[in-house]
Design a protein that fits this description.
Number of helices: 6
Strand order of the largest sheet: 3-2-1-4-5
Low-confidence stretches: none
Bound molecules: 4'-phosphopantetheine
Structural class: alpha/beta
Shape: globular
Radius of gyration: 15 Å
Number of strands: 5
Length: 159
C-alpha cells in the first residue's frame, strides 16, 4: 500500500503548542507529515530558517514520521516534490478562514490532485499565535504552556 504523505506548511516563527496540537492531529490522517518551513525573508522573521529547522528538529526528534524541511517557491511544487497529497492547515477562528480559503482554492487550481484539509486546534490554543508569543517574550511575559521549552529558551536568548 502506498504511504500517505501530508505537508504541514507555515512560517513557524516560532513554533507554538497550537502548531504541535495540529501536527499531532495531522499524524492521524497521514503516515508521514512533512513540516515545511517557508523561506521568506520578506516577513522579517525573528528566527532564521536555519534556527527554525534546528529548533523544530530538536522538538520533534523522537518522531521520525515528522521530518522538517524548508522550501521556497510554490507550496504545491514542494508538495509534489515531497510526494504529499494533503496540505494541512490549522484554523483557530472564523477570522482565519477567509485567507485560508483563498490559499486553499489557489493551491487547488494550481494542483488539482492535492487537497487542503483544515484542522481545528484545541480551543485552549484558539488565541495563540507566533506573533503574540514574540510580543509576550519581548515584554518578558510568562509563556509556560504556550510554547515548548526549547522555544522558551531560544526566545529568552533573543530578547
Ligand atoms: O504560517 P503562515 O505564515 O501562515 O504560512 C503561510 C504559507 C507558508 C502556508 C504560505 O505563505 C505559502 O504557502 N507560501 C508559499 C508560496 C505559495 O505557494 N503561494 C501561492 C499559494 S496561495
Amino acid at each position: 500500500m502506498t504511504e500517505r504523505v501530508a505537508l504541514y506548511p507555515g512560517s513557524f516563527d516560532p513554533l507554538t503548542n497550537g502548531h504541535l496540537d495540529i501536527l499531532s492531529r495531522a499524524m492521524r490522517l497521514a503516515d508521514h507529515v512533512v513540516v515545511a518551513i517557508l523561506e521568506n525573508d520578506a516577513k522579517t522573521p525573528l528566527f532564521s530558517v536555519a534556527e527554525r529547522i534546528e529548533m523544530l528538529r530538536e522538538i520533534l526528534r523522537d518522531n521520525p514520521l515528522t521530518p522538517v524541511r524548508s522550501f521556497s517557491g510554490l507550496l504545491v511544487d514542494f508538495a509534489r516534490e515531497s510526494g504529499a497529497t494533503l496540505i494541512v492547515r490549522g484554523l483557530r477562528a472564523v477570522s482565519d478562514y477567509e485567507y485560508e480559503l483563498q490559499m486553499a482554492l489557489m493551491n487547488r487550481r494550481l494542483a488539482p490532485s492535492i487537497d487542503t484539509v483544515f484542522l481545528m486546534a484545541n480551543e485552549e490554543y484558539s488565541y495563540l499565535s507566533s506573533r503574540l508569543v514574540k510580543e509576550v517574550a519581548r515584554l518578558k511575559g510568562d509563556l509556560t504552556g504556550l510554547v515548548p521549552d526549547a522555544v522558551v529558551r531560544r526566545l529568552a536568548a533573543k530578547f
